[in-house]
Every structure is written in C-alpha cells, then in structure tokens.
Amino acid sequence: MRPSLTWYEVGLNTGAVYPVLSKYVYWGSHIDTMEEIREILRQLAASQLETDRRMQETDRQMQETDRRMQETDRRMQETDRQIQEGNRVMQESNLDLRERQKETDRVLQETERQLKLVGRQVGSLSQSLGFFAEGLAFPSIERIMMQRFGATTVSQNVKIRTPHGTTIELDVLGVANGDRNTAVVAEVKTKLRDEHVQELIDTLKALPSFLPEHRDKKRFGILVGGNVPDSVHNLAIRSGLFVGRATEEAFDLLIPEGFEGRDFRLE
Questions:
Q1: What is the spatial distance between Cα 141 and Cα 188, in angstroms, rounded to a whole number?
Q2: What is the pLDDT of residues 18-75, one digit of tens each?
Q3: Helix or strand or coil: residue 30?
Q4: Is the pTM value of this prediction over 0.90?
Q5: For 194-217, what is the HEC assignment?
Q6: Contacts for 65 with CB less than 8 Å, ≥ 6 apart
Q7: Taking Cα atoms as reference points, which of 163, 226, 236 lies closest to residue 195?
Q8: Do the beta carbons of residue 176 and residue 155 sit within 8 Å?
C-alpha cells in the first residue's frame, strides 16, 4: 500500500509535495498518481479562472447597468428640463395671450365707444337738419295752407295723445273751418323716402281717431323735403299728396299743373 499524505501541499508547478500547512489539505486522502493531482489542480485552476471571468463579466454588467442608469437619469433630467421649458413657454404664451386678449378687449371697447359717439353725432346731425328743414319750410307751408286751403290756424309740432295712450306728433297742421272745412297735414323730412309717403297716408286716414273734431273735414297731405328724389316725388304725386322742396333760398311746391290732391276723407 502507498503511504498517505497528511498536512502536505503539492506544488502547482513542479508537482513537489511540501510538508506545510496550506489551503490544499488532504486529510487522510490517498493520491494514487501524480497525474490525478495535476488534474485536480487543473480543475481548480479552471474553476478559479471561470470564477474570475464571471466576476469580471458581472463587474462589466454592473458597470453597463450603472452606465445605463446614468444615461436613464440623464434622459430623465433632460425630460424634466424639457417639461420645465415647456411649462415656461406655456406660461409665457398664456401671459402673452392674456395680454393680447386685454388689448383686444380694450380696442373693442374703444371701437364701441367711438361707434356710440358717431351714432349720437349722426343722430344729433339728423335732428338738427330736421329742425332746420322744418324751421325753413314752416313760413312757406303756412302761406300755402292759408292761400290754397283757406286755413285759418296753422300750428307747428302738434303733439296729440291717442285714446290708446300713445303720442303722435304732426310737423304742421292747418285747419280751415266754415265753407272750406279742411284739415291739412304737412310732414317735413331732410330727405324724402318711399316709406314717408305711406306714413303720411296712414296719418291722414287715422286723423279722425285722434282728432275727432276734424272727422268731417276734407283731409289733404303735403310732403316736404330738403332732398326730394324723383322716384319718391312721382310716388307721392300718384298717391295724391302735395310735394314741396325746402332749400335755403326758396320753397318750391312740386306739383303738376292742375293737380288738386287727394281728399283722404273719402277713403
């Protein structure tokens, strides 16, 4: 039987056996051949190399993981920066939008104010022109009512309250009693329009309802304008109304020869 090795270490390179304490200890082991020892040593060395390789691979993977985590962290920081930048841009955009909206509201309010002012100015101008036309025309209308229709009283800006509680205003009303027994209504406009013709006709037809004392009187109408378009003049004449033009220089009665007018009492 071969002798056993106890508390011995076998040299890795030379195969020599040294009688010292070591990490390679075979307690009561029997080693048959030196080849078996070398095989064991080769396996241990290979195992150690594989362990080192795996540790290196693990370290590499950990480094790669750490790199990826750093890259992920960098991307998250970049994303966060972009989000913050986006929020900043949105806040600036919202602020700019609010400022623009305020400016738009201010412009609209100013435009509305100017339109109201222009409307009041136009209204005042129209009213002034109407008063001017009435004042200019009244002496001539009064003369015509007295001479042509025999009016004994001629009143300007006559306001009448109807039984329904509404108020009607006549620019000029001339009344002839006695044998003439006539009521004449004149309406004065800055510029005559088609609707003025029908308005005066409606007033003449409804006159007895708010002036019952003139129910049996003959009723005639005179339409006077500072501007008298031909189309309106022709319509008024066909409707049986007298037409006059008032200017700064004169007042002209624009009626065909032999025109007698329409008596709206007969309507």
A1: 10
A2: 444 444 444 444 445 888 888 888 888 888 888 888 888 888 888 888 888 888 888 8
A3: coil
A4: no
A5: HHHHHHHHHHHHHHHHHCHHHCCC
A6: none
A7: 236
A8: no
